[in-house]
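Summary: Need help interpreting a holo structure output

Steps to reproduce:
1. Submit the protein chain below together with the SMILES for S-adenosylmethionine.
2. Request a joint structure prediction with the ligand placed.
3. Inspect the structure token block that comes back.

Expected: a single structure record containing both the chain and the bound molecule.
Actual: see attached output.

Input attached:
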Amino acid sequence: MAAFFKGRRIDLIISLKDFCEMSDEMSDETSESYYDWFEPLYAQANGDATQVPWSLPTATAYLTHWLSKNKVQGAGRSAVVVGCGLGDDAEALAAAGFVVTAFDVSPSAVAWAQERFPKSSVNYTVADVFQLPDDWLAAFDLVFDFRTIQALPLSVRTDVITQIASLVKPGGIVLIATYARESEGAFEGPPWPLSAQELAQFESYGLVAVVKETLHNAESRFADRILIQYQAPL
Ligand SMILES: C[S@@+](CC[C@H](N)C(=O)[O-])C[C@H]1O[C@@H](n2cnc3c(N)ncnc32)[C@H](O)[C@@H]1O
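--- attached output ---
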């Protein structure tokens, strides 16, 4: 995968088509190479969100519906957003009252989020999900991931799920919104939707799936999207 990225570093404002067509050339490599891809993409977008293939104009509806439907009150509780990108989901959690830490491996993404929300209470910070600070372990009441696990290849799936699960406090919540795939076998990504067995890995850490909603979008290449709320044991 490193070789794959090297060839593209110079001209790295890629289109969504490029993103979808990147294939299993990437799948047998380690996560480190990803820094070499996400960071230049954000840096070279130079403040133009249309150059970031996954950017959305607002927080994802998966999160905002979950917050409103459950009348979630974040006051006095902490939340962490994994792979926060441009920050909209972190801001939605802050607006719900959470004390929010939002991290991304890309310094340019983090700087951009800070620039977009200069008065934000969110602690935007650069961090790698594979090298989490020790004091983040079991530290958060709510852990939210939207589209970061699926952006990383199957070769690191076990690791990334382990790392994300490690962030939640006893009694806390892990909320995952992701594309889903039916088969357990290899998949030509990116993205790499999650399988049932992969999602079950969260339960191997004692987390219990208390809500699972599947949404179907027949018009998409990734027809099934899942929102899962896991509860951590006390
Ligand atoms: C597909 S984007 C999704 C961004 C955001 N969650 C959203 O849905 O708009 C995946 C994000 O994960 C970040 N990322 C990739 N590898 C990471 C890692 N090892 N640690 C932390 N963030 C990472 C990327 O920089 C990127 O912002």
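--- end attachment ---

Reviewer comment: The pocket of S-adenosylmethionine is lined by residues 31, 34, 38, 54, 56, 83-85, 104-106, 109, 128-130, 146-148, 151-152 (CB under 6 Å). The beta strands are 78-82, 99-104, 123-126, 140-146, 168-179, 208-216, 224-231.
Status: needs-info
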